[in-house]
ATP-dependent 6-phosphofructokinase
Amino acid sequence: MENADGTTTKLVTGDAGYVLEDVPHLTDYLPDVPSYPNPLQDNPAYSVVKQYFVDQDDTVTHKIVVHKDSPRGTHFRRAGPRQKVYFQSDEVHACIVTCGGLCPGLNTVIREIVCGLYHMYGVTRVLGIDGGYKGFYSKNTITLTPKVVNDIHKRGGTILGTSRGGHSKSKIVDSIQDRGINQVYIIGGDGTQKGAAVIYEEIRRRGLKVSVAGIPKTIDNDIPVIDKSFGFDTAVEEAQRAINAAHVEAGSIENGIGLVKLMGRFSGFIAMYATLASRDVDCCLIPESPFYLEGKGGLFEFIEKRLKENGHMVIVIAEGAGQELLAESLQSMDAKDASGNKLLQDVGLWISHKIKNHFAMQKKMTINLKYIDPTYMIRAIPSNASDNVYCTLLAQSAVHGAMAGYTGFTVGLVNGRHAYIPFNRINENRNKVVITDRMWARLLSSTNQPSFLDPKDIAKAKREKEPANGLLENGYSENKN
Ligand SMILES: Nc1ncnc2c1ncn2[C@@H]1O[C@H](COP(=O)(O)OP(=O)(O)OP(=O)(O)O)[C@@H](O)[C@H]1O
Ligand SMILES: O=P(O)(O)OC[C@H]1O[C@](O)(CO)[C@@H](O)[C@@H]1O
Ligand SMILES: [Mg+2]
């Protein structure tokens, strides 16, 4: 199947509308690559495990809720070790790169790729690329061994460093070729995975025996298909500390308003989950749900009501919320970061001024607003226990996939099962909170905030939920809740 970006997807169809969106394999373009028995079969830790190897035919269903007569639908190849591998241990020369913003768990993924390669497959040559994509051609590499990475999961950030911009296809692939690298592990968000797809296509065009594996990363949790991205739980947990502080501050003073800005450029998952987890939040504002300030049903009216009822309130706002309102009242600045991502204006500061002005000038009412911006604090920390386990499984899935000769794939949890997903599938759109779904309804009923929607907006949101091709846009919220 030809994709919009000119790449192709391997589709396998079966009975009753079964579709496998398969990932590429080295033998697709190098049919003579030899295979070998998987060394794990002699590993005492694994050889006792019954059915340790994944059956060649195992696939994971994308949609778990089905109707009696509905087609079986899309599936992805199940992740895990295969009976046969396409690399000998001493032949492997792997590298790992981290790109984009920080995220809790990056170091755990790095650690577990290195340890997985060493301990499961006997691979001893693993390089770290310093400072993101541009590190391939402009910096020195770092030798990674289990000893070097032993404690890194206890630290936030990435020991390899990261960057935005600097993706030069030919320079990167030249560097891979010149160094004799044959497994490339790429950890990063949507931009990084697009860059990984470009690298894979070029490697294939040059006919190189190199597996490219992506491990998706973003605390915004906006990567489609997968259940959630690593580090998201940790970020939501850390956000609780800011919300608690806002609540304490607001509750200690007359007409106190605690305002917390959380990350989420295009998707409000962090704000939504942090709000639901906290139960102290009176109003949560996200990019997917437009709101307005003045007049009946607006934010100011709600704030006044809540202050009269409770004497204080807490507002959580995602950084991408209300950007259209900011654009109306501030001069739009079309600044971009090195990767071309639009730099957002600070909605937290803007809304703080708006609220203060409104109550001082129009209501002559004293309010005490405390603005807390924990933006980088929620992503610069080490991952929590459950994210650590998740990162380990993602890293091991990537290693098993590359050793088995798969390439051009991303690893991810789909309905609780680890799967290999073709790059184009996760690169074609962005996961968003669906405001006509039950999860957002749960949030509205827990905060009792206005929906800020008129019936016209609701009809529009419902239409947008189901695109013309009949496939639901996916969604964490749509699928899982
Ligand atoms: N369409 C693309 N094609 C090739 N490379 C890309 C593309 N988009 C982004 N990149 C490269 O991927 C890297 C990371 O991109 P970006 O800065 O957008 O972060 P990200 O991976 O999306 O992570 P985050 O979620 O933190 O923003 C950069 O080096 C950038 O040059
Ligand atoms: O300031 P930086 O490092 O460019 O990153 C900010 C962006 O990164 C993200 O955390 C995504 O990873 C966004 O939520 C945020 O807008
Ligand atoms: Mg991004």
